[in-house]
Amino acid sequence: MAEGVTMTGRDGGANIGPIGDFDPVVILVRPQLAENIGTTARAMANGGLFHLRIVAPRDGWPQERAWYASSGADRILDAAQVFETVDDAVADLHRIFATCPRPRHVIKPVMTARGAAAELRVASNRGLRTGILFGPERAGLDNEDMARADTLVRYPLNPKFMSLNLAQAVLIMAYEWFLTEDMTPPRELMTNETHVATKGEMDNFMSHLIRDLDETNFLRNEQKRPGMVRNLRHFFTRGEVTEQELRTLHGVVSELSNARRNRS
Amino acid sequence: MAEGVTMTGRDGGANIGPIGDFDPVVILVRPQLAENIGTTARAMANGGLFHLRIVAPRDGWPQERAWYASSGADRILDAAQVFETVDDAVADLHRIFATCPRPRHVIKPVMTARGAAAELRVASNRGLRTGILFGPERAGLDNEDMARADTLVRYPLNPKFMSLNLAQAVLIMAYEWFLTEDMTPPRELMTNETHVATKGEMDNFMSHLIRDLDETNFLRNEQKRPGMVRNLRHFFTRGEVTEQELRTLHGVVSELSNARRNRS
């Protein structure tokens, strides 16, 4: 992804991401509906895949309906290459994966989408050109197509309900491709304008709270007092708290205390 | 997933998988198009999610078009529950996630789809009921909806092209949910009727090949012979080979040898 080429069209449209020369090529084999070619382009863009090849599209190419269905991923369609046979479409590539829900009578390595994505990334980093075959909407890839592939890809999905449409099959592969280089932590606190409170800021709030609770005699039972204070401390440190939230909590405590003082 | 209840409809339709009481509930908030509710049900079935709730569907409920679009996941639609507000839809649940492409001005934990799926599985195993909110097609969840969630979920995707349709957003979450308990190895050789050859079977073939090559004098250079034999051995052990393929290779070697003998 580091080559610095970006996906802009002949007419200078929106930039939808950087393209790597060795990023995998999505190869649609004998697709039937132009809409599905368009939604495939959209799914590719979601995952940062930009090279599209089309083998023997049933209704010819180009087809305006594909562009309508692509939700703005038309740069991928503009650059798509069309071939008559799978052999032609893969001739300059080094390694071919073929998506295939239920391979039968085939002796071939089968990988998960996640496993295949990792291998595609390794190949790309080695400067090998790779391709992923997706079959036609109803029938899927035939045995001749699969014999052209080095490796089959089968997604782990509910075995009683495997049916995916073409764009969804492409989306899962594109998503896994994107994740191979994504560094997003599984969980992080979004704090926007504020920051996570320091322990000192939290301690300051706890002192305020305990002081006001002492004033009301809420903590008058000397034997239970340490445990009650500890429980409150546990509660307020269960998750991260931001400085802004502490300010609000200071305000809430002061407001309740003042209201009480005014009443008495 | 172990409760043994299966997803069959009132009229005894197809079984599309086992339902866990504590599996996450997919909650569509103010969905606009019935088709999208149907394709959502399909995506849920793909990943083994079966509990659907719908909050204030724009065009009312039920809507026949949802069933047409569900590709056979109609059991999920049959069992879908409709609520007027998000508060009503989440009242009996313990933990809420909300999918949200670009949260702003929110102080909230944000997880990846994969991180959230892992937490959903842990919660389910602890007997907690969880829900995942998905917003309306165009606007997404509003700030009030997000304030009901414990955690936001943002998928790592191409930042220049994040747009997903509703069913695709649900599919990625359902796929990650399915993977949390999936044990498929990243790569395995599909051998079907045959089996991976033993080292003895491979050695037997190598002996056959070398014997026939010796007969032709292909290996006559005594100095180069060990390296050439080793290279052939490297080639034939690069990937797994099946017993059936070895039989074919034995046949190929014999056939070529015999043809040669007959010519000479």
UniProtKB/TrEMBL annotation, chains A, B:
<keyword id="KW-0949">S-adenosyl-L-methionine</keyword>
<dbReference type="InterPro" id="IPR029026">
    <property type="entry name" value="tRNA_m1G_MTases_N"/>
</dbReference>
<dbReference type="GO" id="GO:0003723">
    <property type="term" value="F:RNA binding"/>
</dbReference>
<dbReference type="InterPro" id="IPR029028">
    <property type="entry name" value="Alpha/beta_knot_MTases"/>
</dbReference>
<dbReference type="InterPro" id="IPR001537">
    <property type="entry name" value="SpoU_MeTrfase"/>
</dbReference>
<keyword id="KW-0489">Methyltransferase</keyword>
<keyword id="KW-0808">Transferase</keyword>
<feature type="domain" description="tRNA/rRNA methyltransferase SpoU type">
    <location>
        <begin position="25"/>
        <end position="175"/>
    </location>
</feature>
<comment type="similarity">
    <text>Belongs to the class IV-like SAM-binding methyltransferase superfamily. RNA methyltransferase TrmH family.</text>
</comment>
<protein>
    <submittedName>
        <fullName>SpoU rRNA methylase family protein</fullName>
    </submittedName>
</protein>
<dbReference type="GO" id="GO:0005829">
    <property type="term" value="C:cytosol"/>
</dbReference>
<dbReference type="Pfam" id="PF00588">
    <property type="entry name" value="SpoU_methylase"/>
</dbReference>
<dbReference type="InterPro" id="IPR004384">
    <property type="entry name" value="RNA_MeTrfase_TrmJ/LasT"/>
</dbReference>
<dbReference type="GO" id="GO:0002128">
    <property type="term" value="P:tRNA nucleoside ribose methylation"/>
</dbReference>
<dbReference type="GO" id="GO:0008173">
    <property type="term" value="F:RNA methyltransferase activity"/>
</dbReference>
